[in-house]
């Protein structure tokens, strides 16, 4: 969707004002001058290889450029402004991205739509390969993130923090959790011994956390072995790591009318294994591991040069803030990360389903003029679903 | 804490810096080796090299500690003087296999001390039903990522509070690679002294009896042109090391993909004793689509290679590449890029 100049100007002005009024809250990440910065303007031009030395420089820059998005590298460099091959990599924070996009929620069928770019036909749910009307493959998806979707990402973030604390032994104060400003969470581990890990090692970390490549043998199950032989190798619920997680799961797991009284979970595991057989048991474990593992974006964690949205900056697609969550359980992104004012703005909305922001419901809208609070207006404008009629 | 090793230990593990210190204490120079007394040291050094090159192993018997301790550096000089990188690799591998075998018989505390002294790796001895040591997550990852079997994957390990649990033989296996590396590095950085006649004779004798090198094709490929993942596989082949199955698939499909002929590809693989040309031909032809499914296999994507632990991404050269086959095709562009709306979210 192409944004018109007036809308772009309006968004820039809104962001500028926000940064101006909140400039004291804009703070740099640690070891700022070893990091690369970059930004994307509302014209979708990407600029990278920048560097800032002080909070002040960063603030001035944000107010001057008021970009769509601001990024900083998770990596530390000798020369952050040089081209990638010459920067001199020193190390990088360990980072994780949890995005509602990659978590299947049932509500997606309700609020996600797709539009054929050629004949403009649209429908709810998952996009088809080709447009049923004109057979075009040029199909655009429009995903929305309702409280349910966002809650699902929050649960993933909570699981992730547990892995970092319990399995990797990372001290609590080194783990920072942020709402991404749009549709998920970013988790950053700074100043840890893992800073120097290369891509391969990070891949192992992300496979561990997501449960990718888990083999049933590590539970002590092997195809030919007798039950007696296996018993001693099966996991107990108080064990650390994946084995313990899976054993805890089985402790709670309801299977037929099996009762765990006076027995330990290993008996139950063997009982289930005996009942359903190797193949189905393997399938079951796969499912359990998939549920217990965290749905992180592997590409983000393994990329040692990644640039990540800068905390306390606005997301150009939503007008919401990338915000640190000090108490994750009580954090509500649709309230806590909505930071723009409620000044009325007149818009022409192309389309929007019913949605929730800052505790109120809005929409649905179909090609109509509406007056909405600024935070809601920017939410629609950023997604390209509306244009400004009158700037205030 | 200073770790004390006995003479026996140094004889078993002559790559320890303590062994070097010991030799220094004896203050010998290479010229001293002309003396009759050291004829046996020379013999042992020669034997080390020949065994390594021919059998890929070095015997673990220790007749006399001094013989072992002194013959080791001499053997390094001999191999270095032969002047062929392939044999330096082979020799270091054989030495590391010898150390592995000896370590398997050691007490836990000795193993732990050796790893501390040689590689500065802390291992903690634990009382556990299945495991013998724990080591820090980072020490584990730095080493285990080179192994491709599922049991080495972190997700299949017991991990607790930043430590990974390992069995004795697993710990030794992790360190074997390290031992190989330090021996190779030591040889590589060795500047050859003026070599006395009696050692020269040994070098000549060994040189004449050398087995044939891996294929000429492999040696003359121009590696700068290949992406790092393919280079890695070639490197393993060149060092005579075990190449994971998927690595062979990558190499074969890549070479076919850039237009090499089936014969050219087959010739890349070394004519090692354990190597069956028929099997390689079969595999290569299968991938080329001449056999079996008649489906020509494409080079796996970078994403897939990451999963298999085979990607060794070079930030500049691999920039914007999705498949190794694209390597070197596009100029690298930095600075301002116009990106369309679809990609704008990729950054987070
Ligand atoms: S990025 Fe792709 S081409 Fe480069 S090393 Fe990794 S897999 Fe190979
Ligand atoms: Zn259509
Ligand atoms: Zn939803």
- Average pLDDT confidence of chain B is 80
The largest sheet of chain A has its strands arranged as 2-1-3-12
Helix and strand sequence of chain B: HHHHHHEEHEEHHHHHHHHE
Helix content of chain B: 40-55%
Query: Could you list the spans of chain B in which at least 5 consecutive residues all have pLDDT below 50?
Result: 330-348
Shape, principal axes of CA atoms of chain B: globular
Molecular structure report:
The complex is a heterodimer of chains A (392) and B (348). Chain A has helices at residues 5-21, 55-65, 108-111, 147-167, 199-210, 227-231, 241-252, 265-292, 298-302, 333-336, 374-382; strands spanning 37-40, 45-50, 69-73, 75-77, 89-92, 94-99, 113-116, 122-124, 139-142, 175-179, 184-189, 307-309, 323-324, 344-352, 355-357, 360-362, 365-373, 386-390. Chain A has 392 residues and is α+β, with helices and mostly antiparallel strands. In chain A, strands 2-1-3-12 form a 4-stranded antiparallel beta sheet, with no helix packed on it. In chain A, strand 7 (113-116) and strand 8 form a beta hairpin. The longest helix of chain A is centred in the last third of the chain and has 28 residues, at 265-292. In chain B, 51% of the residues lie in helices and 4% in strands. In chain B, strand 1 (123-125) and strand 2 form a beta hairpin. In chain B, helix 3 crosses helix 5, helix 4 packs across helix 9 and helix 5 (85-103) runs antiparallel to helix 8 (168-188). In chain B, 35% of the residues are buried. The model of chain B is unreliable at 330-348 (pLDDT under 50). At the A-B interface, strand 2, helix 5, helix 7, helix 9 and strand 12 of A face helix 7, strand 3, helix 15 and strand 5 of B. Bound molecules: iron/sulfur cluster (SF4) and zinc ion (2 copies).
């Amino acid at each position: 969707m192409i944004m018109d100049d007036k809308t772009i100007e309006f968004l820039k002005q809104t962001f500028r004002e926000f940064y101006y009024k909140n400039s004291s809250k804009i703070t740099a990440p640690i070891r700022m001058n070893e990091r690369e910065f970059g930004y994307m303007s509302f014209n979708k031009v990407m600029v990278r290889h920048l560097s800032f030395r002080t909070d002040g420089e960063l603030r001035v820059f944000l107010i001057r450029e008021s970009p769509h998005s601001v990024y900083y590298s998770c990596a530390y460099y000798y020369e952050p402004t040089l081209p990638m091959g010459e920067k001199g990599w020193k190390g990088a924070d360990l980072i994780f991205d949890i995005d509602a996009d990659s978590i299947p929620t049932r509500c997606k069928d309700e609020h996600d739509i797709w539009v054929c770019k050629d004949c403009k036909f649209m429908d709810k749910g998952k996009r088809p390969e080709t447009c049923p009307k004109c057979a075009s493959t040029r199909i655009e998806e429009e995903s929305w993130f309702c409280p349910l979707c966002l809650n699902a990402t929050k649960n993933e973030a909570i699981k992730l923090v547990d892995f970092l604390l319990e399995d990797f032994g990372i001290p609590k104060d080194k783990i920072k959790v942020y709402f991404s400003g749009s549709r998920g969470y970013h988790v950053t581990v700074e100043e840890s011994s893992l800073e120097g890990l290369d891509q391969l090692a990070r891949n192992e970390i992300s496979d561990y956390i997501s449960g990718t490549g888990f083999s049933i043998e590590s539970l002590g199950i092997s195809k030919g072995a007798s039950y007696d032989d296996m018993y001693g190798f099966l996991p107990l619920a108080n064990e650390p790591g994946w084995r313990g997680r899976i054993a805890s799961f089985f402790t709670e797991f309801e299977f037929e009318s099996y009762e765990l009284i006076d027995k330990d979970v290993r008996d139950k595991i063997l009982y289930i294994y005996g009942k359903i057989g190797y193949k189905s048991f393997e399938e079951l474990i796969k499912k359990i591991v998939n549920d217990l593992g965290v749905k992180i974006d592997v590409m983000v964690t393994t990329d040692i040069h990644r640039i990540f949205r800068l905390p306390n900056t606005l997301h150009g697609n939503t007008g919401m803030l990338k915000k640190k969550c000090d108490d994750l359980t009580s954090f509500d992104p649709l309230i806590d990360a909505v930071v723009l004012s409620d000044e009325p703005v007149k818009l022409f909305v192309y389309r929007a389903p019913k949605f929730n922001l800052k505790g109120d419901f809005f929409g649905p809208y179909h090609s109509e003029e509406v007056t909405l609070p600024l935070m809601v207006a920017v939410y629609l404008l950023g997604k390209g679903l509306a244009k400004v009629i009158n700037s205030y | 804490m200073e770790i004390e090793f006995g003479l026996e230990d140094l004889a078993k593990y002559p790559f320890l810096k303590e062994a070097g210190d010991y030799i220094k204490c004896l203050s010998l120079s290479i010229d001293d080796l002309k003396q009759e007394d050291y004829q046996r040291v020379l013999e042992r050094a020669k034997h080390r090299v020949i065994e390594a090159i021919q059998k890929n192993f070095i015997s673990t018997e220790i007749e006399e500690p001094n013989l072992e301790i002194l013959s080791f550096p001499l053997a390094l000089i001999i191999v270095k003087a032969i002047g062929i990188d392939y044999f330096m690799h082979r020799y270091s591998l054989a030495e590391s296999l010898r150390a592995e075998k000896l370590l398997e018989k050691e007490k836990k505390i000795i193993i732990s001390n050796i790893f501390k002294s040689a590689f500065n790796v802390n291992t903690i001895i634990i009382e556990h039903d299945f495991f013998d040591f724990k080591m820090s997550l980072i020490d584990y990852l730095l080493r285990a990522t080179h192994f491709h079997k599922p049991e080495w994957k972190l997700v299949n390990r017991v991990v607790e509070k930043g430590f990974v649990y390992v069995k004795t033989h697993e710990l030794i296996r992790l360190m074997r690679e390290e031992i190989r590396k330090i021996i190779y590095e030591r040889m590589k950085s060795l500047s050859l002294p003026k070599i006395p006649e009696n050692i020269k004779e040994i070098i000549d004798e060994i040189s004449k009896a050398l087995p044939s090198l891996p294929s000429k094709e492999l040696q003359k490929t121009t590696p700068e042109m290949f992406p790092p993942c393919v280079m890695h596989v070639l490197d393993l082949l060149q060092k005579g090391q075990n190449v994971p199955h998927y690595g062979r698939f990558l190499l074969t499909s890549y070479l076919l993909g850039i237009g090499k002929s089936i014969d050219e590809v087959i010739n890349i693989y070394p004519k090692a004793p354990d190597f069956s040309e028929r099997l390689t031909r079969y595999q290569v032809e299968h991938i080329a689509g001449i056999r079996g499914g008649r489906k020509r296999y494409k080079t796996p994507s970078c994403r897939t290679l990451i999963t298999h632990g085979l990607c060794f991404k070079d930030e500049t050269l691999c920039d914007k590449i999705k498949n190794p086959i694209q390597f070197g095709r596009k100029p690298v562009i930095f600075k301002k890029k116009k990106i369309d709306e679809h990609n704008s979210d990729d950054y987070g």
